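G., the chain you wanted modeled:
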Amino acid sequence: MTPGPASGPTPGDQQPQQSQPQRTVHIGSVTGSAFAVGDHNTVTQHQHAGPADEAQAELLRAVQELRADLARFVASDTTEVLDAELVSVADEIETAGAAEPGRLARLQQALTAAGALTGTLASGVAVAEALRALLGG
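Predicted structure as tokens:
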């Protein structure tokens, strides 16, 4: 029996490559789901509780605004401590749903220490009022 012609392209054969049309995927907003598009993907889902109630949601909004305002000032020891407490409170509200009273008290102390600066900012006043509502004072 004699071998037949080899199947498939040989090194001397050059076939033009056809380009595939570019595919795009557009995704709007997704809540509470995880998905992957394409080959060889890994899906990781992180769930965050979000604010437990309106008082925590208001504090979170005020904290985010104060952080944005603080970014416009020259950093000092006082503003760095305050920013660290703001980050801790925001993280706790976003992951656990509420900031614990001890964390709120530390934020209130840092806010008081930065009083000369934060007392002149509407966002600083909003954080102080939100803390008073939550801590009762």
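The mean pLDDT is 82.

Shout if anything looks off.
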